[in-house]
Amino acid sequence: MTRTVDLSELARRLDAARRERREVPPLTNELPELPLSDAYAIQEEGLRLRQADGERVVGLKMGLTSEAKRRQMNLDSPVYGVLTDRMRVAAGGVIALGKSIHPKIEPEIAFRTTRELRGKVTRDEVLDACASVFVAMEILDSRYRDFKYFSLPDVVADNSSSSLFVLGEVEHPPRAMDLTKLEMKMSVNGAVAQSARSDAISGDPVVSVIQLCELLAQRGQVLPAGSIVLAGAATVAHMLQPGDRVRLDVEGLGSVEVSAA
Ligand code: OOG
């Protein structure tokens, strides 16, 4: 007998966990064969719930684009999630940890597009479509128990663990520097907690945008003009503690800070 999976119910379950800040078991505990395409359909339904609540899409995030992250999570291919206006924290702002489940922070590089990108695109097409590149950090907060899940469909259904993001205030033209050779340092309370070179991100953060366009095309979607794109973490994530002051410095791009309370 085949069982019909109610994708909307799964989306509502994850959305309630997010809003009520409580952990749920990974979906693949009960649905070990959940296909990745269904997981993206759950993600899309979750987004519709947020839009119905007044949230507006402002961009996309790539995840698992660095070897360090893939090894940390024991997962092997890049995924994407959606960013909304309500997920943005102001540069220098404070993250209220009581509003999260088990948040972690990661160092990122971000792009802003001014032209739509669709399907298979070249590095030059991405650079032409991006008005700027800048520093960013993403705050992840998996809705799964103990921040543990065992497969890509789990993380994809959960909007690729995205929770909040913070963007540097100074934007730079993307052709002004070699984006593969930027030293990145994330400090917590003044001590360097994670560091990497920017080519830790997909070998080149621009490649993350190329991969994002391909993944979107598989869902019949495009990367709209005016999107923020987080290219994926360069290092493993740091578990946030109350009182943490986190700062990311990226050579040539400047810095951004955020605190946890
Ligand atoms: C998955 C999302 C990872 C990144 O930048 O690698 C991610 C996770 O670690 O839960 O966003």
From TrEMBL:
Single GO MF annotation: hydrolase activity
UniProt entry keywords in alphabetical sequence: Hydrolase, Lyase
Pfam families: FAA_hydrolase
Domain (Fumarylacetoacetase-like C-terminal): residue spans on this chain: 71-257
Domain of life per record: Bacteria
TM spans (from-to): none
Family annotation (InterPro entries): Fumarylacetoacetase-like_C (IPR011234), Fumarylacetoacetase_C_sf (IPR036663), Hydratase-Decarb/MhpD_sf (IPR050772)
Protein name from the UniProt record: Fumarylacetoacetate hydrolase family protein
Organism field: Myxococcus landrumensis
Organism phylogeny: Bacteria, Pseudomonadati, Myxococcota, Myxococcia, Myxococcales
